[in-house]
Amino acid sequence: MIKPWIKLIALIIALPILSYISLRVGVIPVGHTDVLALGSDASSQAMIALNDNRIPRTIVALLVGSVLGLAGLLFQLVTRNPLASPDILAVNAGASLAIVLVTLFGFSSIASFTSAALVGAFIAGVIVYLLSANGGNVMYMTLAGASLAALFSSFTQSIIAYEEGALDEVLFWLTGSVAGRSLALVTTLLPWMIVASLCVLLISKELETLSLGDQVARSLGQNVGVIKFVAVTLAVVLSAFGVALAGPIAFVGLLAPHLARYMFGTAFFARLAGSALLGSVLLLSADIFGRLVLFPREVTVGVVLAVIGGAFFIYLVSARQGVFKS
Predict the structure, then answer these.
(1) DSSP characters for 200-245?
(2) Cα(147)–Cα(169) distance, rounded to whole angstroms?
(3) Which range, of 8-22, 55-69, 170-184, 188-202, averages the lowest pLDDT?
(4) Residues 6+ apart with CB under 8 A from 273
(5) Could you read off the pLDDT of 1-13 as tens digits, one per residue?
(6) Cα-Cα-Cα-Cα dihedral sign, residues 261, 314, 22, 60
(7) Do 49 and 30 meet the contact criterion of CB atoms below 8 Å apart?
(8) What one-character DSSP code corresponds to residue 53?
(9) Full-model pTM
(10) 26 near 46, Cβ under 8 Å?
């Protein structure tokens, strides 16, 4: 049996390989020597493509994938719901609606987008919790999240349809894409994303105990309510940063934790790191696939993941029918 640390190393090795492929693949030809000579000749077509497009989109895919993978694991752990993820619990939809609203009122700075995403994500999370608080099983939370996500999405689309001219700049962003993002946006959000991820590591022991069940955690002296609140807050913050950076990308937060569980089993720390790494692998792989499937045209990564993730969601529901039972 392959040990968890070996699998983690394999995932870590996969990231630079996928990053190299990401730098090479696209309409504008970029050779191996161009990748090795980054920054040496900014005037060449290949170097312009690398510096202005492929390097930023590769970094964004790595970062957003990792935070969504972590957020998905936290949501599934706290809710004990294998279907929980930022998109299914309406967190992404709430953040998207908030960003569209602030854009409608003339705000388009990085700070306004990030603040709006955080506020929208928190509001969505609170509403889903209140709607499902008396449910009694995980089905209620899933239905509440899906219903609220549909409601928020309809509001978003209605606003865009009514004010299409004023919201042109967010139309492409709303499809969920890692393309067209600037390194300035990345460097602004990166420190906060690192801080939130480190906070997850700081409470990893408490999360591991919580994964054994609420009763076990209480018997070991944990304040379960506080740990859950902190974990959900961190999950919402990570999701909001992901939405602010790349738009509402779906299903990474659902797929990555399940793949991590399949690969690492009950090894919690490996699952934690694996969820982040697999999120990056999934998002970067989907972006590369989107560039190749209809070459020379591109399919946005949000569309690619919607197809893959939707099929996985259907499989998960059909294969685990007992998940909705008390």
Answers:
(1) HHHTHHHHHHHTT-HHHHHHTT--HHHHHHHHHHHHHHHHHHHHHH
(2) 27
(3) 170-184
(4) 8
(5) 788 889 999 999 9
(6) negative
(7) yes
(8) I
(9) 0.89
(10) no
